[in-house]
Specification:
mainly alpha, 8 helices
C-alpha cells in the first residue's frame, strides 16, 4: 500500500516537472499575442488605401513613392498567415520581411509628404497620419508582447528537464522577430568633425 502511494506521488511529481502544462499555456499565450500582432498589422494595411487616396489629391506628388506603398501593401497582405506560421521560421521570416517593407514604404511616404505644404495642411491627411502613428505604436506593443511570450516558450523548450518533454511532443522553439538590417545597425556611424559646415 505504501509503495503504491509512493509511486502515485512520484508519477505526479514527474508529470508536474515535465512542463507539459507549461508548454500548453505558453503555446496558447504566443498564439494569442500573435493574433494581436496580426490584428494591428491588418489595421495598418486598412489605413493605407485612405492615405494613398488623400495623397493622390496632391497633383504633383511623387508617383514612385505612392507606387512603392501600394506594392508593399499588396505584398504584405498577400502572404497567407496561419497558426503554422509560428512554427515555420522560413514563412515567419517572409511575413516579417513583407511587413518591414510596408513599414519602410510608409516611412518614406511620410518623409516625402513633409515637402508638400498643402498636404501637411490637409486635415484628413493629418488625421490619417496620427492614426498611422498610433497604429505603429500598437504594433510595437503587440510585437513586444509576442517576443516576451515566445522567449518564455523557447526557454522552456531548451531547459532541462522540460527539453525532454519538448522533444517527445515535438515542441520546437518558435521563431521570433529580428531586426531586418542587423549588420547595418551594428556598424557604428561615421562622425567627421572636419567636414565643412553648410
Amino acid at each position: 500500500m505504501v509503495k503504491r502511494w509512493l509511486l502515485i506521488i512520484l508519477a505526479a511529481l514527474t508529470l508536474a516537472g515535465c512542463g507539459y502544462n507549461d508548454f500548453q499555456r505558453l503555446d496558447e499565450a504566443s498564439k494569442s499575442a500573435w493574433s494581436e500582432v496580426l490584428n494591428q498589422y491588418q489595421r495598418r494595411a486598412d489605413l493605407v488605401p485612405n492615405i494613398v487616396a488623400t495623397v493622390k489629391g496632391e497633383a504633383n506628388f511623387e508617383q514612385e513613392t505612392l507606387t512603392r506603398v501600394i506594392e508593399a501593401r499588396a505584398k504584405a497582405t498577400s502572404i497567407q498567415v496561419t497558426p503554422e506560421t509560428l512554427n515555420n521560421p522560413e514563412a515567419f521570416n517572409k511575413f516579417q520581411q513583407a511587413q518591414g517593407e510596408l513599414s519602410g514604404a510608409l516611412s518614406r511616404l511620410m518623409v516625402v509628404a513633409e515637402q508638400y505644404p498643402n498636404l501637411k495642411a490637409n486635415q484628413a491627411f493629418r488625421d490619417l497620419r496620427v492614426t498611422l502613428e498610433g497604429t505603429e505604436n500598437r504594433i510595437t506593443v503587440a510585437r513586444n508582447r509576442y517576443i516576451k511570450t515566445v522567449q518564455e516558450y523557447n526557454v522552456l523548450a531548451r531547459s532541462f528537464p522540460t527539453n525532454l518533454t519538448a522533444k517527445v511532443f515535438s515542441y520546437d522553439p518558435k521563431p521570433n522577430f529580428t531586426v531586418q538590417n542587423e549588420a547595418q545597425i551594428s556598424t557604428p556611424p561615421t562622425v567627421d568633425f572636419n567636414a565643412p559646415k553648410k
